[in-house]
Amino acid sequence: MHQPAVRVADSKSSWVLATVCVLILGTAFGAPWMAAVALKDIAAEVGGTRSVPALANALAWFGAAFGGIGMGWIAERVGVRWTVTFGSLMMAVGLAIATAGPNWSLYLGYGVFVGLIGLSGINAPLYVYISKRFERRRGSALALISSGTYIAGALWPPIFERVIAYAGWRQAMLWFALLEACVVVPLALIFLRRAPQRLPVSVTHHAGREPASVLGWPPNLVFAALCAAIFMCCVPMSMPQSHLVAFCSDLGISKAHGAVMLSVLLGTAFLCRQIWGLIADRIGGLHTVLLGSVTQAVTMTAFLFTQDEVGLFTVSAAFGVGFSGMIPATVLAGRELFPPEEAAWRIPVLLLFSGCEMAIGGWLAGILYDHFGYYGPAFASGIVVDLLNLEIILMLVGRQHQIAARAY
């Protein structure tokens, strides 16, 4: 039987697939933003306790993070087409279950169906899939597909806000469940073919056994540091994203304007993530994470001192610039430091730590708000955790420079 030729990395077909992945992720990740926009509406049904919808959203991130490891393994064996199709259908089921109302139906729908067996079948498998189809422009490609969450954040919140105001959050979830399945399933079945098991010789010369050391240290020690770094970067990253609409409402800014502000934040993140991808292709993943961490710490601090609408629009846009490149750059750093054949488990593990902290950050902000009655302590805790991320990345970059100096 004739075997199809192995496609060359960074080819036109690779970019077509990356674009399809962006469309899939931009649709699928509307589900978490639905919970963020409806946060106050859902909380109103449980005595105003915002930690309830915040926990549901957190469970979706937790589920996607933990489930991604298993789904990454399954995708390597049955094909990413089937994990994405299955994940999309399970997300639709989960949104329908969530409409039964707070508390447990919401937790079950978001935690198990939207997250654990839904997004997990889409997110991590697509990262691994695309990383295998690029070599020279891998940083740009990873930045592009990871922008799906921000496309979702820029596109869906204003739409959700209008639909929720018109029909209520339950009906909005049901309509989105149908739309999500009708978009993602056909795209997966038509476009997502198996990634090549091997790349041409010209792009496989880096492959090999696990190195005895990475940056002069045991490989798993360096990988643990990367996991800790991506874990730490996402606490401040998730807090404004999950609570910006509610934060604006607390300040007397309309929910409609808050939803637009969230769209501005995530739209800026989408555009700037492409720039960060180009930067990462030139200076490497670790240096890009370092720049992003510094920028995120500065802009997160600005949320503590800005109360007016115009100022918050400005800070939100600046925040989108800062954090947008950190996750794909950390994934790129993992691909640069470790053999490509380990990507099928190392990338999902990195995304596990990223997803867990996205979940914890949003939930923690809800808990701190319920305790203190305002968002200042939540944002301050995010800044502290970001500084821990900065310390880890500085250590790895410093080690990288030491190794490079010895080589000369």
- Taking all Cα atoms into account, the compactness measure Rg is 20 Å
Low-confidence segments, given as residue ranges, are 1-7, 198-208
Mean of pLDDT: 87
Strand content: under 5%
Total domain count? 1
Overall body shape: globular
Name the helix and strand elements from N-terminus to C-terminus, one letter apiece: HHHHHHHHHHHHHHHHH
CATH class, named Mainly Alpha
How would you characterize the overall build of this protein?
This protein has 408 residues and is mainly α. It has a single domain, classed as Growth Hormone, Chain: A (Up-down Bundle), CATH 1.20.1250. 79% of the residues lie in helices and 0% in strands. It has 17 helices and no strands. The chain is globular, with a radius of gyration of 20 Å. It starts with 11 loop residues before the first helix and ends with a helix.
